[in-house]
Design a protein that fits this description.
The chain is built from six helices and eight strands, in the order βαββαβαβαββαβα. The protein is α/β, with parallel strands linked by helices and 191 residues long. It has a single domain, classed as NAD(P)-binding Rossmann-like Domain (Rossmann fold), CATH 3.40.50.720. The chain has a six-stranded parallel β-sheet, sandwiched between helices. Helix 4 links the parallel strand 5 and strand 6. Helix 3 runs parallel beside helix 4. It is globular and about 45 Å long. It holds the Pfam family Epimerase. It comes from Secundilactobacillus collinoides DSM 20515 = JCM 1123. This is NAD-dependent epimerase/dehydratase domain-containing protein.
């Protein structure tokens, strides 16, 4: 049976790494990637990309299959104001919960965070609590700074320094994207 996997925001470096690793394990899996742009650097026949407004649940439902096996929220970043944080962090997570419950998914996947602005870390922690209250099992990974793949931004410039601090303070040790993906996949596929 073909696994049907929904990735909310799966076009980023973690999403592309997750898709590639999952396709290597299950070549028959079908991936439905929902994003604002609908553009994906990965070109595989089993990837269906949709440019979509995640606030439009009817439009989202029209783009995905009736039967879902797994759904993963890969959207999230620190935001300075609360309204933008809700748009960027809360709404995708709550959409995932809604879709997982209404489509009877086997499991949901979520990326939390242990490093960053206090408001961001608290938002992720609160969302994990809300998602864990679902009838659908939740697989969570809570990395510090994730690096590797093709991530190149101001945060990745801090990786060498964080590796040094991480030797003493584990909550500061940066984590390779492959490690995050492997942990998330292991947890998801136990369901």
């Amino acid at each position: 049976m073909t696994s049907k996997i929904i990735l909310i925001g799966g076009n980023g470096y973690i999403g592309r790494s997750l898709t590639s690793a999952w396709a290597a394990i299950d070549p028959s899996a079908q991936f439905y990637v929902l994003s604002r742009s609908g553009h994906n650097q990965l070109e595989m026949p089993q990837i269906m990309n949709s440019a979509i407004d995640i606030n439009d649940r009817e439009a989202v439902s029209a783009e995905i299959p009736d039967q879902i096996d797994y759904i993963v929220d890969l959207v999230g970043r620190p935001e300075k104001d609360a309204a933008t944080s809700i748009e960027v962090n809360d709404k995708p997570a709550l959409l995932m919960k809604f879709l997982a419950e209404t489509h009877h998914a086997k499991a949901m996947g979520f990326i939390g965070g242990r490093l960053g602005a206090k408001a961001f870390v608290n938002t992720k922690r609160t969302l994990i609590g809300q998602l864990q209250a679902s009838s659908v099992p939740l697989a969570v990974v809570e990395p510090t700074l994730v690096y590797g793949a093709d991530r190149q931004d101001s945060m990745t410039k801090m990786v060498p320094l964080l590796k040094i601090f991480g030797a003493v303070f584990p909550n500061m040790k940066p984590v390779k994207v492959e490690t995050v993906v492997d942990e998330l996949l292991t947890k998801l596929l136990q369901y």
